[in-house]
Amino acid sequence: MARLQHFGWFFSRGFGPQAWGREDYRWGYDWKRPDLYVQAVQQLEQAGLDLVILEDALSLGSEQAIDLRVRGAYGGPKHDPLLLVPYLLNATRHLGFVPTINPGATPPYLAARQAATLHHLSGGRYGLNVVTDTASSRHFGVPQLGHDQAYDRADEWARVVRQLWHSWGEGAYINDPETGRFADSTRIDAFQHRGEYYEVAGPLNAVPFDDGDPVIVSPGGSPRGIGFAGAQSTVQLALAPLTVDSVTGYRQKVVEAALAAGRAASDIKTLFVFKPEIVASDDEVDRIVAASENPSDEQLAAILLGQSSDLETDLTGLDWESPLDPEALFGDHVSRGSIKGLLAGAESFADHTLRELLVRHARKGRAADRAGWVGTAEQIADYIEEFGEVANNDGFIFSGDLHPVTVHRMLDQLVPVLRRRGLLRREYGDGNLRGNLLDF
Ligand SMILES: Cc1cc2nc3c(=O)[nH]c(=O)nc-3n(C[C@H](O)[C@H](O)[C@H](O)COP(=O)(O)O)c2cc1C
Q1: 267 CA distance to ligand 1 centroid (A)?
Q2: Whose C-alpha lies nearest to ligand 1, atom 13?
Q3: How far is the CA of 192 from the centre of ligand 1 (A)?
Q4: Span from the CA of 222 to the centroid of ligand 1 (angstroms)
Q5: Which residues, other chains included, contact 367 with Cβ-Cβ below 8 Å and sequence gap of 6+?
Q6: How confident is the model at residue 15 (pLDDT cuts 50, 70, 90)?
């Protein structure tokens, strides 16, 4: 019997001009208006996905990187995803929405109150993707913390947010016109939190939840990131190589972190970022893989610009025929994970020219022989089924532009196959986002 898995979508370039310049984007879609996203999320709901996580960057990046980020609309601009969410909630009934939020920018009281409001408005379909990026600190007048300190702050932030949500204790919200009592203030906790990063007085000016708190999602993959997930999250958005060993090992670490924090293994789902390229036939797979073998300089230059934007470091003027020196190039603001990503699976920078690394990025592999992600829907479903059975995988988060064309391409053929094989839900549970995530 196949293992039922959870599926979601990572709106990986946030609320901005993602897919900008692409032919199918020029049909008159306006990224600043809600229509494009509304249409896409309705399709995701019809497909039976559990949640949409909306990436965000608070800043256009360091002053030196602004041109790299905006030139091809790769890293910005971005509008606030929190404010897009009400439109998406209003257009759907079951799908959960999880915008990105950064404890360095949104104080706990504000975050708790906004979340409470949207969670109530949506019948429990709201969550928070808690990130620890500190590079945007200068826009908020707060000091730029180091990696581990940012996790200390996020831990404190999440504890305070929860304390605020629970500041209306059992029986505080009465809402009984017969007795004339709306609330019992003796059960409302006007706590004083004085921590290392925040001073917050309770209680929250919002009523408590009937069906559980908004879910917390987290993406950080370092030991500190996994520790945060174990203590705080219902979903870990996992970015890792999709091999059975790596998926099994990553999930195991998350489960151990949850157990260490006194929670049950079943309290947290580890969902892996997955970007398959689904095509109609084996012939098409062969054609796409063969075409990627010898990428043009123009294709490589586009990859280099994207990497420069992500890494906030201008790599475009470097000599392609020499290895690059990561120590000399990247400042402390660039995450180790992103630098490793530039290697595209290679062992070390010293052994490869920049051109070789770019070619590795451009090359695609066949899903059928486990060399990559180009495959027919059946071949991709084989992969998904295998991970469920062999690696106990909880599920996947598809990644891409929240654009109807991208969504169609990814899901039209895959969804019926996943459903036929018993890998994707046939109906939503009667719960909210938390209920859907925890119902198997
Ligand atoms: C899959 C994934 C998604 C992320 N999404 C965001 C995001 O939307 N906004 C953001 O500021 N940081 C984002 N981050 C960065 C993390 O919050 C974190 O700052 C970074 O991964 C470094 O932490 P780590 O060393 O624990 O991985 C993301 C990271 C990963 C791996």
Answers
A1: 21
A2: 131
A3: 31
A4: 10
A5: 276, 285, 373, 374, 375, 379, 380, 382, 383
A6: very high
Residue nearest to atom 21 of ligand 1 (CA): 220
| Alpha helices in 166-217, H assignment, sequence order | none
In 92-163, DSSP assigns E strands to 96-101, 127-130
> Tokens 């006007």, residue?
190
Q: How far apart are the C-alpha atoms of 260 and 270, rounded to whole Å?
A: 16
Phi-psi region of 186 (alpha: psi -120 to 50; beta: other; left: phi over 0): alpha
From residue 212, give the alpha-carbon distance in Å to each of 20, 112, 127, 432.
38, 14, 11, 9
The model's pTM is 0.96
pLDDT (0 to 100) of residue 394? 98
Residue 217 alpha carbon to ligand 1 centre in Å: 11
Ligand 1 binding site (Cβ under 6 Å of any ligand atom)? 55-57, 100, 102, 131-133, 219-222, 224-225, 237, 239, 273, 335, 337
Q: Which band of pLDDT confidence, cut at 50, 70 and 90, is reported for residue 75?
A: confident
pLDDT of 209 higher than 80: yes
Answer whether residue 334 shows pLDDT above 80.
no
Element (H, E) at 145: none
Locate 155 and state its tokens. Answer: 């831990």
Separation between Cα atoms, residue 167 and residue 254, nearest integer Å: 29
Q: How far is CA 359 from each of CA 27, 49, 292, rounded to the nearest angstrom?
A: 31, 34, 9
pLDDT at 62 over 90: no
Q: Flag whether pLDDT at 2 surpasses 90.
A: no
Q: What is the tens place of the pLDDT at every residue in 44-60?
A: 999 999 999 999 999 99
Asked whether the predicted pLDDT for residue 41 surpasses 90, the reply is: yes
pLDDT of residue 301: 95
HSE-up (13 A, CA, CB side) for residue 120: 10
**Ligand 1 atom 5: residue of nearest CA:** 55
Measured in angstroms, how far is the CA atom of residue 377 from the centroid of ligand 1? 29
